[in-house]
Design a protein that fits this description.
The chain is mainly alpha-helical and 189 residues long. Helices cover 80% and strands 0% of the residues. Helix 2 packs antiparallel against helix 3 and helix 3 runs antiparallel to helix 4.
Length: 189
């Protein structure tokens, strides 16, 4: 009976598959949004002479969309591979390099770095707009503090991952030394 319960629990991972499909649809929406913004930039760029800051803000918006899209890809592919099922693309020339060593810890650090990149773009957009009366000093301060919180969180995750990797290496080394000592004891006996 307990074998069936365990097998049923193991099958429950497939409940996440529709979530990843939903993120693929979100990726399509983001691609559509990117194309609309790009069309807007082309119309502005070739149809008039917009201020440089306007062009820069639109380009930063495009960069932001691309970075969020990259984040979606990491979550879709990395999350599916880590938590649902293997994606059998070994040897495919387009296989992402990071996919070969993805695990929950690596995925967390990569996601944190992507969030920092997105936050950096948003912060840069705020600083470019800082001269506008709608942007208050308080808003600048809070957005900077939030960004710094993301940075500290990512550094902490990376440090924890590094410490855990070192502990795993030490455990493997100690485990090998113990096996070697046991073999020597058997030979001596």
């Amino acid at each position: 009976m307990s074998g069936y319960v365990g097998y049923f629990m193991f099958l429950s991972r497939w409940i996440q598959a529709p979530l990843y499909m939903g993120l693929i649809l979100a990726q399509i929406v983001y691609t559509w949004r990117f194309m609309l913004e790009l069309l807007h930039l082309i119309e502005l760029g070739f149809g008039g002479s917009p201020p440089e800051t306007t062009v820069m803000l639109i380009v930063l918006g495009l960069v932001d969309v691309v970075m969020v899209s990259n984040l979606l890809i990491m979550v879709i592919i990395g999350g599916y591979e880590t938590f649902v099922s293997r994606i059998r693309i070994d040897g495919h020339p387009d296989q992402p390099q990071w996919l070969s060593h993805v695990n929950a810890n690596v995925l967390k650090v990569k996601l944190a770095m992507a969030i920092i990149g997105i936050s950096s773009v948003h912060l840069l957009q705020i600083f470019i707009n800082a001269s506008r009366p709608t942007i208050t000093d308080r808003e600048l301060l809070w957005k900077t503090l939030i960004h710094l919180t993301f940075v500290v969180s990512a550094l902490t995750l990376a440090l924890i991952d590094r410490i855990m990797a070192g502990a795993r290496r030490d455990a493997e080394t100690n485990g090998g030394e113990r096996q070697s000592a046991l073999k020597q004891e058997r030979v001596a006996a």
